[in-house]
Amino acid sequence: MIPLERRDNRRFFLRLLLVTITSFFMTTLGTSLVVVRGDSMIPTLRAGEVALVPRYETWLHRLGIGTFRRGDIVFFRSPVDRNQRIIKRIVASPGDQVALVSGNLYIDGQLVHEPYLKNRIAVSSLPKTLVANGHVFVLGDNRGPLGSLDSRQFGQVAIRTLEGRAAVVVWPLFTLTKGKLRLNVRTLTSHE
Questions:
Q1: What is the pLDDT of residues 58-93, one digit of tens each?
Q2: Distance CA 91, CA 109 (A)
Q3: How far apart are CA 171 and CA 48, in angstroms?
Q4: Which residues contact 41 (CB under 8 A, 6 or more apart)?
Q5: How many CB atoms lie within 10 A of CB 46?
Q6: What is the CA radius of gyration of the chain?
Q7: What's the sign of the alpha-carbon dihedral 177, 182, 187, 192?
Q8: Which of 11, 16, 25, 132 has CA 20 to 30 A from 146's CA?
Q9: pLDDT of 21-66, one tens digit each?
Q10: What is this structure's pTM?
């Protein structure tokens, strides 16, 4: 017969192991919450907002089921500081030829309509660049001077390094806009 104290310790450790395994699978294959830091995605996302990221999508993409698309808002480790994760919008996919002319985005020579940009500042230019296979070109929605550190500075991002797509803003629940309290929970669409 097992002493009562030993049996309680065994149950405790089994429960702890179960919680640890469940937490691992939920954050690795389930969903994660990502806190937005900085102003690089204004006006789409503001500093302090929390986005829900369905991590299972990333694993499905890695298995060849689906892919990240132009317009998706994704997060990944910063190529500049590997200790930080950043969030940006995919504007060009593998094989696309991307260019910025006076702040306007062109893909394969065609002007891209970007309704998520509120204040277009015509300071950014980038010569035609071919997006390599297995990579994407990402930009922040705040493209003014010092507005976003993105592919204009650090280059293309390998698709295998993308950790997920922001799907829904879940916090704060409400914001004060023009003197009115408004529901802030919203889905993030790709705007293709």
A1: 777 777 788 889 999 999 999 988 888 899 999 999
A2: 14
A3: 8
A4: 73, 87, 88, 89, 140, 141, 142, 148
A5: 15
A6: 21
A7: negative
A8: 132
A9: 777 666 666 777 889 998 899 889 999 999 988 887 777 777 778 8
A10: 0.80
Burial environment of residue 70 by CB neighbours within 10 A (0 to 12, 13 to 18, 19 or more) = middle
Please say if the pLDDT value at position 132 is more than 90: yes
Place 103 in a pLDDT band, splitting at 50, 70 and 90. Answer: confident
Neighbours of 2 (CB within 10 A): 8
> Quick check: 154 and 138 in contact, CB under 8 A?
no
Name the nearest CA neighbour of 139 among 163, 167, 105. 105
Dist CA 138 CA 80 (whole Å): 14
Q: Which two tokens stand for residue 79?
A: 């190529």
What residues are paired with 24 via a beta bridge?
A: none
